[in-house]
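for the record, two folds in this file. i put them one after another cuz i was lazy. first one right below, seq on top, C-alpha cells after. the second one comes after a little note so u can tell where it starts
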Amino acid sequence: IGCNALTELVSMAKKKNRTESEAALITLRDLFCKDLLPPVTRPLRYFFEHNNSNTGKVNDRQLVGWLIEDRVRRSLSEYVSALEVASSDSAVPHHKDIAIGCVRELLQSGRLSSSSSQEQMHLVSLLVNKLGDLKRQLCGQIIKWLGEMVVNGHISKSIVVEEVERFLYRRNVSRRAQYYAIVFLSSIVLTRKEHELASKLVTIYLSFFRASVAPPEKHDSTTSSLAQLGTG
C-alpha cells in the first residue's frame, strides 16, 4: 500500500460518515496488525530518530525507507487518535464497539511493545477508560481482555497498573467504575520476583481504602492528596 493511500485511509477513519469511518478503521487495523508494524524488537521510528551520524554512508534507498517508515509512524499516531474519538461515540454504539475492538486487536497483535510506548500507553488508556462505561457487559469484557493481554505478555503488568491507578483517582469516576478497576487489579497474578509491583498494588489498595472511608467533607481533599501519593 502506498503512503498516499495510507494517508487517505486515515483521513477516512476520521470522517463523520460512520459507514466510511468503520471501513477505514477495520482496514487500518488489519494493515497495522498484519503488515505495517514491525516485530516488537524493532519499533517504528520517525525520520529524525534514525542515526544520522554517518550520513555520508547512507544511500538513497535507505533514506526512502526512513521516509516511508516516518509516514507509517505518523499514520499510526493519527489512527490511534481516530480510535479514541470513535470509541467515545455514544450516539452510535456499533461504531463505538468497532473502535474498541480495533484497540483490543492492536494490543493483542503483539506488534506494540514498551519500545512503542506512546501508542501502547494511549491504547491501554483507552481500554482502561471503558471500565467506566455504562454497559456492564463491556466493563466485564474489558477486565477479561486486559487480563488476557497481561497473561500473554502483550502488555506489561506495570503499564496496566499505572493506567488503572490514574483511572481510580480521577474526580469524575463513578463508584461502579472504581469497583471494576479494583476487581481487575485484584485479579493480577504476581510472581515471587515482582516485589516492586506487589508493593505498588498494596499501596493502591490502602490509599484507595482510606479515600473511600474518609468523611464526605474530607473526601475530595483526601482523594486529591492520595492521588498525588499514588502517582508520585
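(here's the note) second protein begins now
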Amino acid sequence: VEYCTINNITVSCNSWGGGGFSSSLNNAIAASKTIGHVFVAAAGNSGVNTDSNPHYPSSYGQDNIISVAATDNRDNLANEGTWGSNYGANSVDIGAPGVDIAATWASAGYVWSSGTSMATPHVAGVAALVYAQNPGWSYGQVIQHIYDTGRPSSAMSGITTTGKVLN
C-alpha cells in the first residue's frame, strides 16, 4: 500500500485476507487516500457476517476501500458447500462474479477457481477503467460511480451496503 502511495498507483487489487486488526495497515490505507487510491479488498470466504466478525483488510473503516462479496451466475451470494462468501450490510459493499472463474496459474495453465479472490479483480479492473476515463476524479467519485452503476440484486439487498452486483 505504501508502494502504491509513493508511486501514485490509484487502484490496488487485494485478494487476500486474514489475521487481526493492524494499525500499520489501517494507517497505510488511510494515507493512500492522499493520492486518490482505491483499495479493492476480498470480503473473505468464511460465510460469515463481517459486521460482527470482521475480516481484514476488507473490514477496515476507510472510505477508499471497496469490500467485495462473491456471487454466482444468478447474482446470489456464493455458497459452494466448503466455503461461502462473507457478507455484511455495513461492511461489504458490492457483489461480483466469483464462482467458476477462469484464471491462469503458472503451473497449471487455465483453471476454474472460486471465491472472493476471484470476484475482487473484476471490481479492481472496473475501478481502473473508470479512472482511465475520468483521470481528474477523486477516489470517492470513482467508488460512487461503481456503486451507482451497479445492478440491483435482491440477493445482495440487506447483506451489502449497496444491494448491488458490479455492472
